[in-house]
Design goal:
The chain has 295 residues and is an alpha/beta fold. The chain is built from eleven helices and seven strands. Strands 2-3-4-1-5-6-7 form a seven-stranded mixed sheet. The chain is elongated. It starts with 7 loop residues before the first helix and ends with a helix.
């Protein structure tokens, strides 16, 4: 067992009434929750600030690993490694490029989308229209039957929205007129993309404007199994109480769902199922209390 998993020994003590093989099965599955490495897709036209956003949020520097190829198009994969944990970012191509390559992109996205926990789609606040993004969403993403909950839109470069000269540099925030224009822009984007499941947050990665709100929205958009590992990659300033509480809650829910799936499994004898039911609440509580040890 890995050193940072020694906390599981405390959990093992609560499973002494179970046969060794069932105990090990539970511990192995708990270990898989702790070890989960998130995979995030990132999309957007050239120049929207995808790299700036990643560098603003995460502690580790981008390190290219490999290319995922589909015909002549590629999606570049980056590993962000901090300690023993890795966050994988996949820079997804295609937005704003030739529509003649649609079939190639459909093939690529049909391969990649099932492997990602979330797609962060970066838009630029001072763009007058999002027709190329809208086209790609409708003709590639939706046709690949991507779950809308997997897509999180973010509006970058908020400081450049008109009237850009009114940006409040002292307080690092938009003027009233800029704020109103950002609200109008967000409404227009919502209509373009069929009212996304998650809030669209205006940010400026360069100026670190509104990034805390974006990170909290990001955490709320991730699947439960990915949020705890995500916190390990974030810069300390973004680990707010909201972020930590969400990660801990998701972690507890993931453990609860794992144990519930074992309870519902027809492969376990009824007597052992009863024993798992009896200790489930205590295990979930103990795992949540050990969250900071694991992460």
């Amino acid at each position: 067992m890995k050193i940072y998993h020694t906390g599981l020994r405390l959990i093992e003590k609560q499973l002494t009434a179970l046969p060794h093989d069932i105990t090990q099965r539970i511990l192995k599955r708990l270990e898989s929750i702790i070890d989960y490495d998130p995979v995030i897709g990132i999309m957007g036209k050239t120049g929207v600030g995808k790299s700036s956003l990643c560098n603003a949020l995460f502690k580790a520097e981008l390190s290219p690993v490999s290319d995922i190829e589909s015909c002549t198009r590629e999606a570049q994969r980056f590993n962000l490694t901090w300690g023993h944990r890795t966050l994988t970012l996949i820079d997804l191509p295609g937005v704003g490029e030739s529509q003649s390559r649609d079939d190639e992109y459909r093939e690529l996205y049909s391969q990649v989308l099932p492997t990602v926990d979330l797609v962060i789609w970066v838009l630029k606040a001072d763009d007058r229209a999002f027709s190329s993004d809208e086209y790609f969403y409708q003709h590639i993403i939706e046709q690949c039957q991507c779950d809308p909950r997997k897509v999180l839109f973010v509006l970058n470069q908020a400081d450049k929205i008109e009237p850009y000269r009114e940006w409040d540099t002292v307080n690092n925030q938009p003027s009233l007129r800029q704020y109103q224009n950002l609200e109008s822009k967000i409404q227009a984007i919502s209509e373009c993309f069929n009212y996304p499941c998650h809030p669209i947050i205006p940010i400026s990665a360069k100026d670190s404007y509104n990034l805390t709100t974006f990170v909290e929205t990001l955490m709320g958009s991730l699947p439960k199994q990915a949020s705890s590992a995500m916190t390990t990659q974030l810069k300390e300033r973004y680990k707010t109480d909201v972020v930590i509480e969400k990660a801990q809650s998701d972690f507890g829910d993931s453990v609860d769902e794992l144990l519930e799936s074992m309870i519902q499994s027809a492969s376990l004898p009824q007597v052992f199922t009863f024993l798992i039911i009896k200790v489930k609440e205590a295990i979930v509580s103990a795992m949540k209390s050990l969250w900071s040890f694991f992460f």
